[in-house]
Amino acid sequence: MGTELAKAVVDGVLTGGVYALMAAGLTLIFGVMEIINIAQGIMVVLGAYLSYTLQVHAGIDPFVGLLITIPVMFLIGVVIEWGFIRRLASRDRTALSILVTFAVAIIIEGILTQFYSADLHTLDAWYVERSIHVAGFYLPYIYVFGFGLAVVLLGALYLFIYRSRTGYSIRASMQNRTGAQLIGIDIDRVAAVTFGIGAAATAVGGMVYGATNTFNPDSGYDLISRLLVIVVLGGLGSIGGALVAAVVTLVIEDVTAVLWSPVWSSTVFFGVLVLVLLVRPSGLFGARAVRAQ
Amino acid sequence: MTVADAPVAQQAPDDRGTDPLSAPGFRLARRSVVVLALLCAVGFPFVFTNPATTSIAFFTLLYAAAASAWNLFSGYSGYMALGNAVFYGSGAYFMADVTTHLNERGGTMIFAWVPAAGLFAGLVAVPVGWLALRTRRHTFVVVTIAIFFIFQLLAYNLQSVTHGSAGIELPLPPWTAATYNDPFYAAALVVAVIAVIASWAVRRSHFGLQLLAIRDDEDRARGLGVRTGRVKLTAFVLSGVITGMCGAIYAYYLGSVYPPFAFEAIFDLTVALMAFLGGLGTVAGPVVGALLLEPLQQYLTLQFTAAGLSLILFGALFLAVIGFLPQGIVPSLGQLLRRLLRWRRTAASGPEATR
User: Fold this and answer.
1) Which candidate in B10, B73, B136, B152 is best for mutational testing of the A interface (most A CBs within 10 A)?
2) Inter-chain residue contact B142 with A231, CB threshold 8 Å
3) How far does B248 lie from chain A, in Å, by closest CA?
4) Cα–Cα distance for residue pair A258/A261, rounded to 1 Å
5) Running DSSP on this structure, what letter comes out for residue B263?
6) pTM of the full predicted structure?
7) Helix (H, G, I), strand (E, B) or coil at A138
8) Per residue in A101-113, pLDDT tens?
9) What is the ipTM metric for this complex?
10) Tell me: the pLDDT tens digits for B317-329?
11) What is the dihedral of CA A206, A207, A209, A212, to 10 degrees?
């Protein structure tokens, strides 16, 4: 039992890292644009299908394939922002964005169903089947590689946001949209780049998700519900909060599966949100509301 | 219904003087339209007897009721709830559980349980609303989605109540295939009328004004003495009761309930889309939206049997509605009529008379 529990914690941390990356994209988009991207879940699935297609039809290893899928997803993100988000009226922007991105998600789901049918797929490679033996645990290589990649990319994201010029613009827009505009920041460009980064994160998340789970176009719903819980728990707009929330919730889920039953682990995952909101309505790290609106 | 059809926040600043649409003639015209629509709805199954047609009509009325219920809370208060399927599913499972446990015989008497199912859904709505409404507006949307998924998972996992994915069979209705839809149509019509009357009454009441004040500026409303928490929760529960009644009728119509049908993510979205299309925060809007969208959606699913294509079309339609009619049909029509009337009055009495 003890080792099982420890294994559950390790598994939770490793998968949590990958969820953290996907959630970071979502919360970054909210922080900059006050937009909740419901399509984030189906974009992860889209990323998984892209990796799958490259592997099956071109024989490209999923990790190498990221060199193609990341730019592709970035472009898709920019196009979605330009095509649908930018045109939204400023009144009820957040509410409208939820409906619009939900519609985009449905369209992507439809396209995927049309091309790949509703059959379950999974990514296959040597690192999916083989495990590494560390400190008494057998961990599939993909968990370790995926976690490592997520950590590296989160670090890169951190450097980009805190050390680069575009990053300064992004943070300025997060703090005060109008103010940023007044000092000459091209808000539209920042929004497009942010949405692109959020989408690019799903390329990586999708690849690891596709290698560790079976997926079909329907998987987007499960993913987005989890990502939303993580993002709200961490406090909307807080990247650090999303990281902590991702790891905590996935560890809790995995531990529940061992201690109680796998059937209830997902319910507990959502239950954590309810409990936290009872105590802190603005999430773990969310800023307190200045105005209730 | 005069005030009801002009969203307060969107009234143009140049709306000086009286609204031309509240003239006695228009009030009469509006009343006749309502009576005429009701007569059409009552007469429909006598004229169209094809079960395929009456089935579409049944769903249209059911969604008109559900969309009105959604609008009653979300349209008036501005808090977007994307988890109304929680109440739809709760009503459906209540109906299935009660009728099977009491060994009810199928028949018209089953419908007597519909109000009870609504009350049960309302009971569910109290803690759900209390929890979700603690959060800010943006978080609220996400929390309602999360709560929806909790309920869907519970439906799969609470085997003793829901029988999991095996589902529950309801008592078999005794009606023949040719007239099978008619009792359900009648029940849906009753609930739809209740929903419209409820949203009309709320819109005219002091309570409705408080909801609108919350939509426009919640902090100011609180400052002026509106007990915002209580007002929001009351509207949320009321919306849940009506949605629960719709779910109960739906369960009996299907003959069985399964988690993915009772707790359906598309339902959350469809009711919101209908209200948006017709006009958010108006009484007639959700009904108009349902009248247009539900038959169209049923037609699309019949025409394009490929699941992918109907999803793409639904999504594209959704985008088109938000892109081209962000205000909705009813407010847009109202504005058009107003402009037309003002233009006619100006033309009749010369440009000076407008002042």
Assistant:
1) B136
2) yes
3) 25
4) 6
5) S
6) 0.83
7) strand
8) 988 998 999 999 9
9) 0.79
10) 888 877 777 778 8
11) 170
